[in-house]
């Protein structure tokens, strides 16, 4: 017999740890997909997801049940990813020296024929490299606002930042990104 | 190079990337094994633990103050009423003003 999420959570809170496993099985793909947006290496991704589930288990008592469990878990996932970004911000790459030939070719093609360039794997790698050089708040806000296309209100709910703070951080993140793009242009073509 | 267009292209490329939601084999078992060592954090239990820990120092401070108030030697030398002492302290500024007025 299948139990509902509320029943599983109540059972875990009552001391039945095994009831937590169906929740892990059901939501791990979602948590992994989110974590892979913020960490590139698979080992780091697995560390983040493990941390998310440990926190979820320990803080399950604070889940009030007035919103779906998934929303609560995704908020926890995003804050854990943000903590990861802050903890690893010193390891950020400081230049675009790691641009591969394929990525370089994509940029060349963009300069000569901007309309012909497509969303290839090279462009994706390039944008990941670009985002990884932003500050942690900028990485978070660009990912949520531009890539996942969430609203300011949603980002505010997920991150716990006020709506005006989200707007300010989005403005700064876009400026940071433009500065980096200008740096690429200068490094590569001047 | 049109930087704004480049930014839009790169963001579009990131958006078009399919979500990678693969879960490593046996991951849930690994999590369950880790949870075996973790305990659920109950905010009320933590609060009650903190209160119990604070109780002993509070009782000790209360006892020390009681003993001090009983054996305080200052009380024997100047037997001033507590209420009068309190009034003098509260109205100290007013008393000082009136003394200044008189001197002027």
Describe, in plain words, how this protein is organized in 3D:
The complex is a heterodimer of chains A (190) and B (104). Chain A is mainly alpha-helical. Chain A has 2 domains: 1-91, RNA polymerase sigma factor, region 2, helix turn helix motif (Rna Polymerase Sigma Factor, Chain: A, Orthogonal Bundle), CATH 1.10.1740.10; 95-190, Orthogonal Bundle (Arc Repressor Mutant, subunit A). Chain A is built from 9 helices and no strands. The mean pLDDT of chain A is 86. Chain B has 104 residues and is mostly helical. Chain B has a domain at 3-37. In chain B, 74% of the residues lie in helices and 0% in strands. Chain B is built from 6 helices and no strands. The longest helix of chain B is centred in the middle third of the chain and has 29 residues, at 43-71. The radius of gyration of chain B is 36 Å and the shape is elongated. The termini of chain B are far apart. The mean pLDDT of chain B is 80. Chains A and B meet through helix 2, helix 3, helix 6 and helix 9 of A and helix 1 and helix 2 of B.
CATH architectural category of the largest domain in chain A = Orthogonal Bundle
Evaluate the radius of gyration of chain A.
20 Å
Specify the helix fraction band of chain B: over 70%
Radius of gyration of chain B: 36 Å
The SS-based structural class of chain B is: mainly alpha
Summarize the helices and strands and which ones pair or pack.
The complex is a heterodimer of chains A (190) and B (104).
Chain A: H1 5-13, H2 21-38, H3 42-58, H4 69-87, H5 101-112, H6 121-132, H7 136-147, H8 152-159, H9 163-189
Helix pairs in contact in A: 2-3, 2-4, 3-4, 4-7, 5-6, 7-9, 8-9
Chain B: H1 3-15, H2 27-35, H3 43-71, H4 73-77, H5 82-90, H6 92-103
């Amino acid at each position: 017999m299948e139990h509902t999420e509320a029943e599983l959570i109540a059972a875990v809170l009552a001391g039945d740890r095994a009831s937590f496993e169906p929740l892990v099985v059901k939501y791990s793909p979602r948590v992994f997909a989110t974590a892979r947006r913020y960490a590139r290496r698979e080992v780091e991704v697995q560390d983040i997801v493990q941390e998310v589930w440990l926190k979820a288990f320990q803080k399950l008592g604070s889940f009030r049940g007035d919103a779906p469990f998934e929303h609560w878990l995704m908020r926890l996932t995003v804050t854990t990813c943000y903590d990861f970004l802050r903890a690893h911000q010193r390891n950020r790459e400081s230049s675009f020296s790691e641009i591969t030939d394929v990525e370089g070719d994509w940029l060349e093609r963009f300069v000569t024929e901007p309309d012909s360039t497509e969303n290839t794997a090279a462009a994706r790698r390039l944008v990941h490299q670009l985002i990884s050089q932003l500050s942690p708040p900028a990485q978070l806000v660009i990912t949520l606002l531009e890539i996942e296309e969430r609203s300011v209100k949603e980002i505010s709910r997920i991150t716990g930042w006020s709506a005006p703070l989200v707007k300010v951080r989005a403005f700064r993140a876009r400026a940071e990104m433009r500065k980096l793009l200008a740096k690429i242009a200068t490094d590569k073509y001047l | 190079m049109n930087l704004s267009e480049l930014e839009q292209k790169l963001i579009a490329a990131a958006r078009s990337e399919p979500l990678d939601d693969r879960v490593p084999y046996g991951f849930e078992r690994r999590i369950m094994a880790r949870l075996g060592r973790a305990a659920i954090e109950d905010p009320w239990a933590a609060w009650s633990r903190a209160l119990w820990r604070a109780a002993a120092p509070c009782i000790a401070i209360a006892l020390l103050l009681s003993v001090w108030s009983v054996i305080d030697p200052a009380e024997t030398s100047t037997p001033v009423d507590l209420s009068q002492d309190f009034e003098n302290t509260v109205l100290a500024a007013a008393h000082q003003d009136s003394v200044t007025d008189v001197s002027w």
